[in-house]
Amino acid sequence: MRKLHRAALLCVAAAVSLTACAAGSGRQADESGPAAAPGKDDKFSLTVWSNYSGREQAEVTKALESFKQKFPNAEIRHEGSQDDDKITAGIRSGNPPDVAMSFTTDNLGQFCTSGSFQELKPYVERDGVDLGQIPDAVRSYTEYKGNRCAMPLLSDVYGLYYNKDMLAEAGISAPPKTTAELLDFAKRTTKKAADGSIEVAGFLPTMLFYANRPPIWAPNFGAKWETPDGKSGLAGPEWAEMLKFQKQLVDFYGYDNLERFRAGLGQEYSNDHAFHQKKIAMMIDGEYRTAFLEDQAPDVRFGTAPFPTITPELYGTGFTTGTIMGIPKGAKNPGAAWELIKHLSFDTATVVDLANGIKNIPSTKAALADPRLEVDENFRTFIDLATSGKLQGNPVTPIGDAHIKAIGDFATSWQAGAVPDLMAGLEEVDQQIDDRIAKSGR
Question: Where are the residues of the annotated region Disordered (predicted)?
Answer without folding.
Answer: 76-95
